[in-house]
């Protein structure tokens, strides 16, 4: 039973990483797809009740964004982990520019998320925090952060 919480600006590679690492094992909970917090809550509740591993694939920039998942998941006995997609703003904007159609988001939105983003810390209640970066070749590199990232 594992709850995975992604943290990272638009264009940092979260959904791509989900497809690569978690597609076969974890339900994806994504606010862009679900549209409303009410529908998100319904799916989250179903995962918790069913002891179904899941990934929260939102930008989740603030501790308060993450807290709504951490408390309920821990209470049920899930292992709770954060994946922090640390990326320079310009790299996120460049990757966003390469996206097509509705996938492409306005640059001020990315910059706004970048400005307010607070890196996850263990005190929020995680069992582990992983940092995800993208190598020049485009490979995801994952490392566990021992203390604060
Ligand atoms: N490892 C990678 N190497 C090269 N390009 C990548 C990599 N990961 C993602 N990309 C590209 O970067 C863009 C953004 O990736 P992705 O959609 O996964 O970001 P996201 O964090 O889910 O963004 P959002 O929060 O807006 O949903 C996409 O065009 C994707 O193809
Ligand atoms: Mg995404």
What order do the helices and strands come in, and which of them pair?
Layout: E1 2-7, H1 14-21, E2 27-29, H2 31-34, H3 37-49, E3 54-56, H4 63-76, E4 79-85, H5 89-97, H6 107-116, E5 128-134, E6 140-145
Parallel strand pairs: 1-3, 1-4, 2-3, 4-5
Antiparallel strand pairs: 5-6
The structure holds adenosine-5'-triphosphate and magnesium ion.
In the residues, how many domains can be counted? 1
Shape: globular
What strand order characterises the main sheet? 2-3-1-4-5-6
β-strand amount: 15-25%
- Listing every helix as H and every strand as E from the N terminus to the C terminus, the arrangement reads EHEHHEHEHHEE
**Helicity, in percent?**
25-40%
Largest sheet: 6 strands, mixed
Which value, in Å, is the CA radius of gyration?
15 Å
Terminal residue distance = 24 Å
Ligands (ions, cofactors included): adenosine-5'-triphosphate, magnesium ion
Total strand count, please? 6
CATH domain topology: Rossmann fold
Structural class: alpha/beta
Q: Quickly give the CATH architecture.
A: 3-Layer(aba) Sandwich
The CATH class is: Alpha Beta
